[in-house]
Amino acid sequence: MRVSVTPEIVAAHGLKPDEYAHILRVLNREPNLTELGIFSAMWNEHCSYKSSRVWLRTMPTTGPQVVCGPGENAGVVDIGDGQVAIFKMESHNHPSFIEPYQGAATGVGGIMRDVFTMGARPVANLNALRFGAPDHARTRHLVYGVVAGIGGYGNCIGVPTVGGEVNFDAGYNGNILVNAMCIGIADASKVFYSTASGIGNPVVYVGSKTGRDGIHGASMASAEFDENSEEKRPTVQVGDPFTEKLLLEACLELMAGDAVIAIQDMGAAGLTCSAVEMASKGGLGLLLDLDKVPCREAGMTAYEMMLSESQERMLMVLHPDRTDAARAIFERWELDFAIVGETTDTGRFIIRHQGETVADLPVDVLAEQAPVYQRPWTPTPPAPYLPAKEIPDTDDLGATLARLMGGPHLASRRWIWEQYDHMVMGDTIQRPGGDAAVVRVHNSRKGIAATTDVTPRYCAAAPKEGGKQAIAEAFRNLCAVGAKPLAVTDCLNFGNPERPEIMGQFVGCIEGISEACIALDMPIVSGNVSLYNETSGVAIPPTPAIGAIGLLADVDKMATVAFKQDGDEIFVIGETQGHLGQSLYAREIAGRKDGAPPPVDLAAERRNGDFIRSQIIAGNVAAAHDISDGGLLVAIAEMALAGGLGCMLSLPRNAGPRHGFLFGEDQARYIACVSPQKAQAMIAAAQEKNVPVTRFGSVAGRDIVLDGKLVHSVAGLRSAHENWFPAYMEG
Amino acid sequence: MKARIHITLKKGVLDPQGKAIANALSHLGFDGVEEVRQGKYIEIDLADGDKAQARAKLDAMCAQLLANTVIENYTVELQA
Amino acid sequence: MKARIHITLKKGVLDPQGKAIANALSHLGFDGVEEVRQGKYIEIDLADGDKAQARAKLDAMCAQLLANTVIENYTVELQA
Amino acid sequence: MKSCVIVFPGSNCDRDVAVAIEASSGTAPLMVWHGETALPACDLIVLPGGFSYGDYLRSGAMAARAPIMRAVLAKAASGTPVLGLCNGFQIMTEAGMLPGALMRNAGLKFICRDVFLKVENTDNIFNRRYASGQVVRFPISHHDGNYFTDAATLDRLESTGRIAFRYCAPDGAVNASANPNGSLNNIAGILNAAGNVLGMMPHPERLIAPELGGSDGRAMFDALASLLQCA
Ligand SMILES: Nc1ncnc2c1ncn2[C@@H]1O[C@H](COP(=O)(O)OP(=O)(O)O)[C@@H](O)[C@H]1O
Ligand SMILES: [Mg+2]
Question: Measured in Å, how far apart are chain C's first and last C-alpha atoms?
Fold first, then answer.
């Protein structure tokens, strides 16, 4: 079949006229349709990072703990004892909007493949989700499907889903965000990379058969939505977690030996991206024979095979004399195994099908000469400081607290996490619901703490502060369980980068993230960019989701948020100024969406975080919690709910406006509960480190009481907090 | 009135269940199984007396809830 | 040869999925739904040419794997 | 003690239960591949949790027909203790080792959380270390745990003391609000007539140490280990 390439076809492949002109120049001829498809897959935003690349390069990615930073399937960090943690977060936004169950499920499947491709056994999954307003017509359906899909895939594979975050905001009505993160553990000596080497080595395809799934999915994931997006439906990929479980076990079994030279999972634009990346990294050529590719349907064209996004597939370069042993492993696991090509020294990507050469393209052009854009950007205008006195205090503290705790932003996410198996593998030491999840490194005392964070309303108001805050909050969540923060993965979700104001958000967030990563010693080791999250010209709030991990040397020295016993003293660590701009109180209670978000003092973050961690490890802290969304009183209430205990609080003399003190979202703060016997030691240590501590009360009874007046019973708060989600979902 | 509804995966959409069933059948020694596709079968008892109305209603039920029209097709049969 | 297999819950076996569908339909404003039962529908392509043999084989497949005869009934239809 | 854990494609709690067995008995179990046709001499067989064959078609259906199951059935018939946890329980009912079926949870959702169980029958090798009527806390983690059987079988199970565990409230009350999945009579686990086969949906292997959030499951593995050690 000869289709000549018209401008319409070029446009339908998402290539701009000047990009196509570049193709004509380097090829010195017209590409055929298959070749055009290959270019479009390699050069679209999703694979080439053409709008973001110049900015990603500015991010801090190194540190003594980093074994492998961005550029591979996932980032690799040292966790001591000859072991590494391998982790990454990735978006599956558009597919999840179209078909929430399968979109989310295949997102989880994809991120797990990124991790086990590198030789790690996945040990924990997390997810960062953003949905539209609760009262938007599609929201409930999307929540239902996405949560079921994440659970359906992760539960079946048997990797615990231990954490994540969920926001509801009208800004996501037309573009939900589904960001999935996976963490794996490997021996440092057994990490596998995607750089092919050697000439004439077999290129091997394993896993599921190739079908006509998600053809143009990668391009779809980068195309702005419009009213016609419903028509793009048949490109949905269906996940097969059972096959992925087999693939996981077979790959790890193969990797225990020495057969693998290079390995790459097939994700977006499957065979094309994986083959080109392996060849390009090795400076090689690659020959593929499509007649050897296991297909699910008869009559698939070269174009379809090269662009198929069928799930649960991998491409590897093997040592030729280990190929038979490798085949035996995959056959035992009842997976397809086919030698589909070989490495060459030509530097060309040559594809044969039914006796003909259907593509002959230069590898380096495909992989390295993708366009790179220095997109124009305009900074977000600064938001003015919003003083507490411009916002009224509440006259019913209890009702206000219950409204916050029982509303969509802060209500318990139990409805979600109970659909996720969060205990399988037998190493979940801190379950969902705390500041960070903790999974023990199997057969050791070590623990990996993990969290995902970003506060999009801060990023929208002040991108740079918001970027800093996302890292700072992740840092705090790790410190609050007693973990030493190690490294970060990010998932940068934004609108259309061709609009300067959106690009301005992107740049601002990256600057903030970078500054915070340096100050807090948390390099970025992997990540993903998702742009064009807009519908009919309306962009999502800037949402640079951060996934971070930390290390506990001994899981017995871990803190949780739950109040432990009557009489423990409650301290606020860090300085409270009562910053209400962009707080939940200002937005939800006072209806004020303006104002600057709380400023982030990175030196204070570092100092206070290091302090709380050292106090936890020293055994001085009975319970710890960082203060974030909702402020101090909300954090106290969360500790009370977790422990089933109340408290007697008293406003400090220099508290300033009461609502600012109780609901302000000042950064770099924690609550620490300390037994009376240890309080003096903790205070002395704080003074020595110049860390502000304020006594705020003690754990007592079954009610939250402030200055002698009942604020709310813990039991009553619990029902508000627990009921919102199930009641909402039952609709 | 009784309706029989069949919901099947669209052509070309991966059917992991069907694939696994086909494998299991061949392990059990059943040869000659070329393809297995699994769908749903739903029986609905309706109070309505009018056939045309019932059919319209069932169609709407399928489109709105019973079938996931992104990946599934459906057929409705009405019995007297 | 193509076979269509219907697997339905036996009478008296509670059908949580059917019940949930009935509830959801009424939530969506569909009235007059008296009962919903959900079953499975399986299509099998067989290489066999002989109808009687195929039918015996399909029966055995149902009894041995496709249906759980503790709670389910099955029917097999053969198409040319 | 010699024990075997059967590994089906898609099993995913096989390692977890092996850890529990080793913690109690000091000896790691043998992991036996589903495709084997014979079992070594052993004192305990475990069918672990997970999603054998993806739980496609029906949970446990395909695993119940795996080659190794013939040997498992034979050992069970000759009195070897067999423990089925979660997917293992589903496999047992599908294989006819235990009566009834595990249907989709009444709420239709997958549920992972700790539940309270009332220990009903302690006169068996699995539950000897629990007191009759004791309330224990185990996690559940399943989509298809809604126990169903016909009325006559249910009567027989009830009247012959074959209910091993029932879902209950923290104070031991067995009622509808303590029933997470719609199981008949709040049944969480049952025994065969001889008492050497136990199938249950909850996961005792997940709560065997304080750092995991509790140790109520430990007693089951301790009981098996001590009994089998002096056997
Ligand atoms: N925002 C980011 N920050 C840091 N690294 C990034 C970011 N986005 C992408 N990367 C890195 O770029 C590489 C390519 O990303 P991607 O195409 O998403 O990986 P994959 O092909 O495995 O899906 C990865 O190594 C990823 O970690
Ligand atoms: Mg990858």
Answer: 6
Number of domains chain D is built from:
1
How much distance in Å is there from the Cα of A282 to the middle of ligand 2? 16
* C-alpha–C-alpha distance, residues D109 and A414, integer Å: 13
Q: Which residues contact D126 (CB under 8 A, 6 or more apart)?
A: D81, D83, D164, D198, D220, D223, D224
Q: Rounded to an integer, what distance in angstroms lies between the CA atom of residue A216 and that of residue A47?
A: 12
Contact between D200 and D47 under an 8 Å Cβ cutoff? The reply is: no
DSSP letter assigned to residue D227: H
CATH assignment at residue D40: 3.40.50.880
Point out the residues of A that are catalytic: 46, 92
Q: How far is the CA of A251 from the centre of ligand 2 (A)?
A: 15
Residue A2: what pLDDT? 59
Which residues face A356 on adjacent strands? A353
The residue among A579, A612, A628 whose CA lies nearest residue A691 is A612
Note the pLDDT tens digit of each residue in A153-166: 999 999 999 999 99
For residue C48, what pLDDT is reported? 77
Q: Which structural domain range is residue D99 located in?
A: 3-230
Token pair for D199 = 């199938």
Spelled out in words, what is the top-level CATH class assigned to the domain C2-79?
A: alpha beta
Report DSSP state, residue A213.
T
Are D56 and B16 inside 8 Å of each other by CB?
yes
> Could you give the residue ranges of the DSSP H alpha helices within A237-316?
241-255, 270-282, 302-307
Domain extent listing, chain B? 2-79
Of A598, A578, A573, the closest CA to residue A479 belongs to: A573
pLDDT in tens, A571-630: 999 999 999 999 999 999 999 999 999 999 999 999 999 999 999 999 999 999 999 999
pLDDT digits (tens, 9 = 90+) for A228-259: 443 343 568 899 999 999 999 999 999 999 99
**Angstrom distances, CA of residue D33 to CA of A200, D68, D91:** 36, 8, 15
Specify the ligand 1 atom closest to the Cα of A264. 22
Query: Measured between alpha carbons, how far is A115 from A76 in angstroms, rounded to an integer?
Result: 10
